[in-house]
Design goal:
CATH architecture of the largest domain: Alpha-Beta Barrel
Bound molecules: ligand C2E, magnesium ion
Shape: elongated
Number of strands: 27
Distance between the termini: 92 Å
Strand order of the largest sheet: 7-8-10-11-12-13-14-15
CATH superfamily of the largest domain: EAL domain
Largest sheet: 8 strands, mixed, barrel
Helix content: 25-40%
Oligomer: single chain
CATH topology of the largest domain: TIM Barrel
CATH class of the largest domain: Alpha Beta
Strand content: 25-35%
Structural class: alpha+beta
């Protein structure tokens, strides 16, 4: 049924542009009107959502997605055309309908929940889930009724077997609870109410801790501990999850950094990435930036991606996994086998670890089939060179079984429950102290004996270092600052051309741009683990410069501190020769452009020929007095041309004329009468003021042939 509206120009604002049925506003207006007009009829409100609509868009494209929505609207129109009902599109893939209870009870309305879409070759079926609310209290605002129908729909959103759910009051409480959590989120983040718990992951063969998983908990000031299963789906809906996930990653990195800074052992920690993150193109860079900010190597943070994220978003997940890999992160496929995907998908995904869903273990006792499936997954993973972690190991029997089928690692209550950070750190310390062959990462703290060599003046090594031919030294990059720690005698000889009276270290910090340049060279030497070689225009203590050739090698360090050995050569002579070669090359090129070049020296009243092209038989560097020069010029130039050229006789006049030329060049055209022919010629006059205050005038002559 459609309600007629009085004004035609309102038409476009009433209907949803895409589907042509009511939009949200007119649905509200018409439903309120219908309820008022039929106070004695019992009505129900239905809220539909199309399942996996996002995937549909990804798979078939937006246009196909639009067509499906249009078709959906047509089905509604078709089925409800003779009913007392109002229907419309709320937003995206959400539709609403208010219809009589009689219709719900006595018709096959559930077929509204399924539509088919024909691509031209294949027919696809799409399903919806919906929530129903029986309107009992007409005083309730319509928006409130819609919330109730939606709350009912939410309860079956992930249950593919259920077509619809009726609203009951418990759902309302859940909705209120959700709203409360949403409003409390910002404070909870600001007050650090979210705590990261750590659950160790152990090597299957001997139970040794090899890594851990970070699991978030909300330690609420009044409600106590809330588990992630309660709030994560909610924050995935409203987008807060991206704030929460980044908070967790940051906390984990801070913990890792603090372990390394204290020189303590640690293991990689895997973090969970919500499925909705894959709609965010900045995801991989965000992870990388957090790790970088804490100065960590990417192998200390592993990334868990849940299998259902891949099912939702195969293309984006695949791209993200590849990118994370290229950034050096290991990627784990979480909850593998929980139902959405097939083993086939593994061939397209460069993941490193399979985490087998804990439900496999639940069924092991009852069904032989479960163990066959589990064993084949493990075997397949081995062929694909993936390592396998089994989640939810609760008994010794399960562990024994997993060991027997060569599952690499285990995680579960039998070994450790998720624990607060302090407890986890204490466990790491205890394990590190008791174990000699732990798979722990320690910081690559350099051996202190390196420093001893330079500190003790009487050791053989130290004598060798200080008297080594050529400049050498140690420098340290610490928290973005660079500092010279030790230098040998050769360093002073190389940089200052003298031996120091005392072995003092120069403690003036490096200036920009040298500082940033050196830090970058150190970074390359460290990351690429090779000797880095470069030329440096080094600013000395007295603000003069020297050219050095530097070789740099990374010796070791901790996460925020790195030590480098360097060797230097003085390449001043080399640079000078290079510069001269450069100047000579350029002047040769410039002179080649002209047939003759004269230098006018007004102070000495002379004119010197600097260059003459090959066909002229005059020696360059021939000097004329200006009188001789003009005498000669008069012989080879017509009187009217000579008049023009006389301007150069008078320096002041030349200066004035040059100033008027915005090109700073005065060009005079004249005919040159040689012995053989008359040639059309141009003389260009330039003036150059050099920094030493001297003035130079050039006259460059070119025959125009
Ligand atoms: P998950 O990533 O599969 O994590 C494993 C879950 O199994 C954890 O539940 C863990 O406490 C639980 N578990 C571990 N061992 C056993 C065992 O032996 N028996 C049983 N029955 N359970 C075990 P938890 O901590 O409640 O986390 C639930 C889910 O919430 C996680 O599943 C993960 O998907 C999500 N989650 C947790 N923290 C975060 C987070 O920081 N960000 C995101 N996006 N999701 C998170
Ligand atoms: Mg996980
Ligand atoms: Mg899991």
């Amino acid at each position: 049924m459609r309600f007629t509206h009085k004004t035609a120009n309102k038409q476009n604002m009433l209907y949803d542009e895409l589907t042509g049925i009511y939009n949200q506003q007119s649905f509200f207006e018409c439903t309120s009107y219908m309820l008022e007009e039929h106070p004695d009829t019992s009505f129900c409100l239905i809220y539909w959502n199309i399942r996996k609509f996002r995937t549909t868009n990804d798979l078939f494209g937006w246009e196909a997605g639009d067509q499906i929505l249009v078709q959906w609207a047509h089905t509604l129109q078709e089925v409800l055309k003779d009913e007392l009902a109002v229907y419309g599109r709320l937003d995206h893939d959400n539709f609403l309908c208010c219809v009589t209870e009689d219709f719900i009870q006595n018709s096959d309305w559930t077929k509204l929940g399924e539509i088919s879409y024909f691509t031209g070759e294949t027919e696809y079926h799409f399903y919806s889930c919906c929530g129903l609310y029986r309107i009992t209290d007409l005083t309730l605002p319509l928006s409130n009724m819609i919330d109730k129908a939606r709350a009912a729909m939410e309860t079956i959103k992930n249950n593919y077997m259920a077509l619809y759910a009726w609203y009951d009051e418990s759902m309302w409480n859940a909705l209120l609870e959700e709203q409360r959590m949403n409003t409390e989120f910002k404070t909870a983040i600001a007050e650090k109410q979210f705590k990261v718990y750590y659950q160790p992951i152990c090597r299957s063969s001997d139970g040794l801790i090899t890594s851990a998983e970070a699991l978030v908990r909300w330690v609420h000031p009044t409600k106590g501990m809330i588990s992630p299963g309660t709030f994560i789906p909610l924050f995935e809906k409203n987008g807060f999850i991206s704030i929460l996930d980044r908070y967790v990653w940051d906390e984990v990195c801070a913990m890792q950094q603090s372990r390394l800074d204290q020189g303590l052992a640690t293991v990689p920690v895997s973090v969970n990435v919500s499925r909705v993150e894959f709609y965010n193109p900045a995801l991989c860079d965000d992870i990388r930036n957090i790790v970088k900010r804490h100065n960590l190597s990417p192998d200390l943070l592993k990334i868990e991606i849940t299998e259902s994220a891949y099912a939702d978003n195969p293309v984006q997940v695949q791209e993200a996994v590849k990118k994370l890999h290229s950034y050096g992160f290991s990627v784990l496929m979480d909850d593998f086998g929980s139902g959405y995907s097939s083993l086939n998908m593994l061939k397209d995904l460069p993941i490193d670890v399979l985490k087998i869903d804990m439900r496999f273990l639940d069924n092991l006792d009852q069904s032989q089939k479960a163990s066959i499936v589990l064993e084949s997954i493990i075997r397949l993973a081995k062929w694909m060179k993936l390592s396998v972690v089994s989640e939810g190991v609760e008994t010794k029997k399960e562990w024994d079984y997993l060991r027997s089928v060569e599952c690499d690692a285990v995680q579960g209550y039998y070994f450790y429950r998720p624990m607060p950070q302090e407890e986890y750190i204490a466990l790491l310390d205890k394990t590190a102290a008791n174990s000699t062959n732990l798979l722990f990462h320690t910081s690559t703290e350099f051996d202190d004996s390196i420093m001893d060599i330079f500190n003790q003046t009487n050791t053989m090594e130290s004598v060798l270092f200080y008297s080594m031919l050529g400049g050498m030294g140690l420098l340290e990059v610490c928290d973005g600052e660079i500092e010279l720690i030790r230098v040998n005698n050769g360093y002073y000889e190389t940089v200052y051309n003298t031996l120091p009276r005392e072995r003092k270290i120069l403690n003036r910090p490096f200036q920009e741009p040298e500082r940033s340049f050196l830090i970058e060279q150190c970074r390359i030497a460290k990351d690429e683990a090779k000797i880095q070689q470069f030329q440096l225009h080094h600013r000395r203590e007295d603000d003069t410069y020297v050219w050095l050739n530097v070789k740099l090698r990374h010796l070791g360090g901790s996460s925020h501190r790195s030590l480098f050995l360097f060797a230097i050569d003085n390449i001043e002579e080399l640079k000078k020769a290079e510069r001269e070669r450069y100047v000579t090359n350029y002047s040769t090129v410039l002179l080649k452009l002209f047939d003759r070049v004269y230098h006018l020296d007004y102070a000495a009243d002379t004119i010197e020929l600097l260059h003459a092209s090959g066909e002229d038989f005059i020696e360059p560097r021939t000097q004329y007095s200006s009188a001789d020069f003009f005498k000669h010029l008069a012989e080879v130039t017509a009187p009217e041309d000579l008049e023009k050229l006389k301007i150069i006789k008078d320096k002041t006049l030349l200066d004035e004329t040059l100033e008027k030329q915005h090109t700073n060049c005065l060009s005079i055209h004249y005919m040159f009468r040689g012995n053989v022919a008359v040639t059309d010629t141009t003389a260009h006059f330039f003036k150059a003021d050099l920094p030493d205050g001297s003035e130079h005038y050039l006259c460059c002559v070119k025959k125009n042939v």
